[in-house]
Design goal:
Layout lengths: L2 E11 L8 E17 L3 E7 L13 H13 L4 E7 L10 H17 L5 H16 L7 H6 L3 E5 L4 E4 L7 E6 L6 H6 L7 H20 L2 H7 L6 H4 L6 H10 L4 E4 L6 E5 L2 H18 L5 E6 L6 E3 L2 H6 L8
Parallel strand pairs: 3-4
Antiparallel strand pairs: 1-2, 1-11, 2-4, 2-5, 5-6, 7-9, 7-10, 8-9
Helix pairs in contact: 1-2, 1-3, 2-3, 6-7, 9-10
Length: 324
């Protein structure tokens, strides 16, 4: 095939207690990238849905850098032209840069007939993520590519562990009318972590993973606490504590920032509870932040990036954008 289109889903990362190591994809919202074989090099022919804000220079674009890394790894003399359809809001905390990079390498690899492994593809996508997010952390790229709830033990060489998802576990995501650049949010973290905070985080992560394996929602709820990133980033999202409280009162197991924010996620024991939590979070966001918010209720999708018929097919299927 000389022209191939791939879809890569939005992702929620950190999951409160798993800074830079935990993530999962949503079921349908995401980015779509079409790759076409050309004589040489990497170029970007078109980008939709970004209001002209993303670089058209492939050397400065997440998807372009990822595909160049793929060509370099393959020793491929042919080139790739990309068309990108952004279905995710920019600077939203939903893994938009990861989705573009992952969709691009999946489409390009298929167009070239290379048959690269997931481990090879993730390293290429991480090169792109470094450009888009400022560092090559894999907690968005890994779930976006692999699917499922994953733990990134090590990004390079990749050591990605898929964790069990208890029946009923459902995510709510609310994206308020804010933007937070990942590089800005990471700068707030500093370079050191107090030992007491680190110990608390390790304990929460261990308890959360154990709760997943045993389907113990009560233990998972106790563990969904971020002792490291959220306290340092809370000022970026007005009324964060009130929004979290509204989610908890509506029955959420826990609520925190998705990635670096401003999107927030909540985990719930069932879809019925998730729908109630969605309503409560939207109401709280409207009060605390205002503006138009987007929301999504989704299982923790077992499916990562995959080939589709075309970008228009993805939009018709509802994959292109979070519901208004």
């Amino acid at each position: 095939m000389t022209v191939v289109t791939a879809f890569a889903p939005a992702t929620v990362s950190n999951l409160a207690c798993g800074f830079d190591v935990l993530g999962f994809p949503l079921e349908s919202a995401g980015d779509v990238v079409t790759a076409r074989i050309v004589a040489s090099g990497v170029r970007i022919d078109d980008i939709e849905g970004d209001e002209g804000r993303l670089p058209r220079d492939a050397r400065r674009n997440t998807a372009g850098v990822a595909v160049q890394a793929l060509l370099d790894r393959l020793g491929e003399p042919r080139g790739i032209a990309l068309c990108i359809c952004k279905g995710l809001p920019l600077s939203s905390g939903l893994g938009g840069s990861a989705a573009s990079a992952v969709a691009a390498v999946v489409a390009a690899d298929a167009a070239l007939g290379a048959g690269s492994t997931l481990e090879q593809l993730i390293l290429c996508a991480l090169d792109g993520e470094r450009i888009g997010a400022g560092s090559a952390h894999a907690d968005n790229v890994a779930p976006c590519l692999y699917g499922g709830l994953v733990l990134v033990r090590r990004p390079n060489p990749p050591d990605i562990i898929r964790l069990p998802v208890p029946p009923g576990l459902t995510a709510v995501v609310v994206h308020p009318a804010l933007e937070i650049e990942t590089s800005r949010a990471r700068a707030l973290l500093g370079e050191t972590v107090p030992l007491a905070d680190a110990v608390r985080q390790w304990a929460n992560l261990g308890a959360f993973v154990d709760g997943l394996h045993r389907g113990d929602f009560a233990q998972m709820a106790r563990a969904l606490e971020d002792a490291i990133a959220e306290p340092r980033r809370a000022s970026l999202v007005p009324g964060l504590s009130a929004i979290k409280r509204a989610a908890a009162e509506a029955g959420a197991l826990g609520c925190s920032l998705s990635g670096s924010g401003p999107s927030l996620f909540a985990l719930c024991a069932s879809r019925a509870v998730a729908l109630a939590v969605e309503r409560a979070m939207l109401a709280a966001v409207a009060t605390q932040i205002g503006g138009a918010s987007r929301s999504y209720v989704s299982p923790l999708s077992a499916r990562g990036a995959h080939l589709i018929e075309s970008a228009s097919h993805a939009r018709e299927a509802g994959a292109g954008r979070l519901p208004e």
